From TrEMBL:
It comes from Pomatorhinus ruficollis. GO terms for biological process: hexose biosynthetic process. The keyword Transmembrane applies. Its EC number is 2.8.2.-. GO terms for molecular function: N-acetylgalactosamine 4-sulfate 6-O-sulfotransferase activity. Belongs to the sulfotransferase 1 family. This is Sulfotransferase.
Length: 560
């Protein structure tokens, strides 16, 4: 084996090693070159013969010199590369800072907002492809339409996973095991001479005892203390004395306005309060069935001490006092008349909010709650009446966003939050059932906007597993706003309320609407047309099922 002394490269027989710089320079002459002529050429035999140390030392020295040159070359290139990257970064930062001020940035966000010219001829159920002719670039982003297909794929995936499966209703004994104290307080029978569910409960306190000293509603909320201060003053005047014992009248609501938020429940509540035979809890929305009985005061604050059922019943004491006055009147005692005063409760979370179940009840198969709010209400009040006020879920979601968002509200921000929420919902339905995702506490807290609240039919079907259809009245806010007198008559008839005088009816139906959108929210304008198109696609299969269940195509919300 032969090696070139100058570069220690293995040479083949008769190889002059022409590629070597030292062997063949620009003025190389084979006759003059001592290496090419064979002088001072020391082949290294590495397999069978001993090597000369001088040759080895000479090879090693030249080898180090060649690598030093290589590293110097690399160092120079690296410095040049780093300098170029720094300059490019500074230019990009300068471009982004100045371009953002003038709306010139072309870098798209994960989901862009669509912007379409307003055109009254476009119907809400038209697809986005039909609307592209009317597309106009927005000042904020010129690539709005491009991402609609990707969001539409998410919606298509969700739609493909929709299954409306009837849930298994738990039996009464299972419910008793979960809430033994509640079943020990609320009886299974009520007074026969009262239309409202009421009963007498023995009171074991004395005149120096504060009956509301431990009421959690009074302790945690200053605005309710005035109500409880009044109840303390009149409490002893309304006790019923029988055989040296004291009894207080306890009542539950006769009817519940169970949902949905931002669908006109406050307006319905305010109008029903004006009826002479209707009373409500001391607080419009106690949220006891859904939150307070689990110790949830504010969702962001975590869990506190659980509110016992007695605290909830205290909220109906004002109405119970009036019912008791009727029951003790001569008309009821002597002529066998019945008390017609009824009590209502209007927590708009009752229909949909079952988020706390996972912390208190054993998990069921595939993450679905084994017990729902309606299971317990039905266990105590199988004859309860339920009122549901709904609106176009697309508009409901935007109203919900405007009401609860605290800062940086805009149609563009709403669009981003909708896109993010759809992604999260898709991720859930790929692994779990629709019901498991709808009642998933982690998912619902993670979604920037409450998409799940607008899935009305999912909740309604679960309520229909325990209550008969004739016990539930479903209204539309759109109908209520356009013909309030008609909807209020429907409610009066549903609750079997007595007739009203013209003056009373005018007072109820002509009062201004309650809880309308705030002026600062109205100034933000409507949602982006692209956002509306996306939400129409998302809610369409649920609205279709709802219209089938209620036998009413108005719940398709095609022209709202």
């Amino acid at each position: 084996m032969r090696y070139c002394i100058n570069c220690c490269i293995h040479l083949l027989p008769n190889d002059l090693h022409r590629q070597c710089f030292r062997c063949r320079g620009p003025d190389h002459n084979n006759q003059k070159c001592p290496v090419c002529r064979g002088e001072n050429k020391i082949p290294l035999y590495t397999d069978r013969k001993q090597m000369k140390w001088l040759a080895v030392l000479e090879v090693r020295t030249d080898h180090c010199e060649s690598w030093n040159g290589f590293f110097c070359l690399r160092k120079g290139k690296l410095c040049s590369l780093m300098f170029g990257l720094i300059i490019m970064t500074l230019v990009m930062v300068s471009y982004m800072l100045t371009g953002a001020k003038h709306g010139l940035l072309l870098i798209p966000s994960p989901f862009h907002y669509g912007a379409f010219a307003s055109n009254p001829s476009l119907m809400d159920n038209e697809s986005l492809s039909d609307m592209k002719d009317y597309y106009q670039p927005s000042k904020m982003n010129i690539s709005y339409v491009k991402d609609y297909p990707s969001i539409k794929l998410i919606i298509d995936t969700i739609t493909s996973k929709i299954e409306f499966i009837t849930r298994q209703r738990p039996d009464l004994e299972e419910l008793r095991k979960q809430e033994p104290h509640m079943f020990s307080v609320i009886p299974n029978k009520f007074l026969p001479n009262s239309k409202n569910p009421c009963w007498y409960e023995e009171y074991r306190g004395n005149t120096s005892t504060d009956p509301y000293a431990t009421n959690s509603y009074a302790l945690y909320s200053k605005r309710f203390r005035i109500i409880f201060d009044y109840l303390r003053k009149v409490f002893w005047n309304h006790l019923y004395h029988y055989k040296d014992k004291h009894y207080r009248l306890r009542c539950l609501p006769h009817f519940y306005i169970i949902g949905q938020p931002k669908c006109g429940t406050t307006d319905l509540y305010d109008r029903l309060r004006l009826h002479p035979d209707v009373r409500f809890s001391a607080i419009k929305e106690p949220h006891w069935w859904t939150r307070k009985r689990f110790g949830i005061i504010r969702l962001r604050d975590g869990f506190h001490d659980r509110y016992p059922v007695e605290d909830y019943l205290d909220l109906f004491d004002l109405a119970a006092h009036q019912i008791q006055s009727v029951l003790q009147s001569d008309a009821v005692k002597e002529r066998g008349k019945k008390n017609n005063i009824i009590i209502g409760e209007a927590s708009a979370s009752t229909m949909w909010d079952n988020n706390a179940w996972i912390f208190f009840y054993d998990n069921s198969t595939e993450g679905e709650p084994p017990f729902l709010i309606q299971d317990f209400i039905h266990a105590f009040q199988p004859n309860a009446k339920l009122i549901i006020m709904l609106r176009d879920p697309v508009e409901r979601l935007y109203s919900d966003y405007l009401y609860f968002a605290s800062a940086n509200k805009s149609a563009e921000d709403f669009h981003e939050k909708v896109a993010e929420s759809l992604q999260l919902f898709e991720g859930c339905v790929l692994d779990f059932s629709l019901r498991a995702c709808v009642y998933n506490n982690t998912l619902n807290n993670a979604m920037p906007v409450r998409l799940q609240v607008g899935l009305y039919v999912v909740y309604l079907l679960d309520w229909l597993t325990v209550f008969n259809k004739d016990q539930i009245l479903v209204l539309r806010l759109e109908d209520h706003a356009s013909n309030m007198r008609y909807t209020m008559h429907m409610v009066f008839q549903f609750l079997d309320l007595g007739p009203l005088s013209e003056k009373q009816e005018a007072l109820i139906t002509k009062s201004p609407a309650s809880n309308t959108r705030r002026p600062e929210d109205r100034s933000l304008g409507p949602m982006l047309p692209t956002t509306k198109a996306i939400l129409r696609d998302f809610y369409r299969p649920f609205n279709t099922k709802l219209a089938q269940v209620l036998f009413d195509d108005a719940f398709l919300w095609k022209r709202t």
